[in-house]
Structure formats: C-alpha cells, structure tokens
Amino acid sequence: MRKIVLMMSVSLDGFIEGPNREIDWHRVDAELHQHFNNLIRGFGALMSGRVTYELMASYWPTADKDPDASPEEVEFAGIWRNIPKVVFSRTLERGTGHTTVVREVVPEEIMALKAQEGGDLALGGADLAAEFLRLGLVDEIRLYVHPVLIGAGKPLFPEAEAPTDLRLVESRTFGNGVALLRYERDTTAGAGDTAGAGGA
C-alpha cells in the first residue's frame, strides 16, 4: 500500500511561512532543488490545499520558459506539469491538467487512494496536514529544517489532543545547512513502557 508523506520546509523555530506568508527565507540551492526533483518525480501524486496549489500553479506550468530559470527549475516545471495532483478545496471549481479537486478529506476515500498502484503520495500545506494528522492518515514526515529563526508566522504543527509517536529513519545535511529529518509513525511506542509498569 502506498504511503502518505508529509513533506514541508520549516524554519528552525517551526514555522512554514512568515506573518505575511513570506517564504523568502528558504535556502534552496542547486543541490537541494535537484534532491526535490529526484524525490518528487517518484511520487504517485501531489496532495495539497487550494492555497498551496494556486501558488504552485501560478508559476510552475511555464517556469521553464523563463530564460533566467536554472536547470533544476526547468526540470521541475516538467515534473510538476506531468504529475497527478489532488487538491482539497470547497471553493476551487477545477484545476489545470492532471488535477483532481476533492471537497472533503474522507478517510475511506484516502485509504482507497493509498490502495491504488503507483508511487507514494506527497502531502503539502499546514491546514491540510493538520486534518490528515488528526485522522491518523500520515505515514511519514519529511522535514527540511532551514537554518534560520524567523520569529513568527504560521507553525507547521497545530495543537493536538494526544502525542504522536514517531521514529527517526533518516537524517541528512545539505551543503547549504538545510537538514532533512525523516520520520515514520511508530505504532509500537509505549508498549514496552506498559509492560514494564505492569511488572514493577
């Protein structure tokens, strides 16, 4: 079964954007951009909310026509145009090419999507991620921690009623100081503690 992978860039103090939606603090150089290209090319679909989708759709469909675009940007423009996209929105009427609009996050429908053949499903956007996390639908979290403190803005993770146990499965540092932390859900966490308490 395919995995749902939450994939986000965050500041060291946990924000995905500044108070006015700024993301100019992102440290994306050729090495990191190529990493994103290689990773996203293997996904079966990109899932996002309307705001994230419209931000991407305003630039990437024609980014490779820009004479100032880097080779990595030219490559990603083709990747973005061709990859299937699922947009969760109550207001968006339709998207452009390879885009499906879904009105609600319905767990049974998400599980059916995961059961289809193909690559894993990338999830982006804090509000949508919060809903998927609340419903226990996120299998993996890939955080790209940028070496900057922005002080205020929109946090990635909302308040939650209970902890979510995770297991670190990969870490990597890029040349520009960005650190990748990749976690999977740990369904076994707490079992040993319970057994230990019972035997005390």
TrEMBL record:
Pfam families, per database record: RibD_C (PF01872)
Enumerate the spans annotated as Bacterial bifunctional deaminase-reductase C-terminal domain: 2-180
Gene Ontology BP annotations: riboflavin biosynthetic process
InterPro entries on file: DHFR-like_dom_sf, RibDG_C, Riboflavin_Biosynth_HTPR
List the signal peptide residues.
none
Gene3D superfamilies (UniProt xref): Dihydrofolate Reductase, subunit A
The entry lists its GO molecular-function terms as: 5-amino-6-(5-phosphoribosylamino)uracil reductase activity
- Protein name, per record: Dihydrofolate reductase
Which species is the source of this protein? Answer: Streptomyces triticiradicis
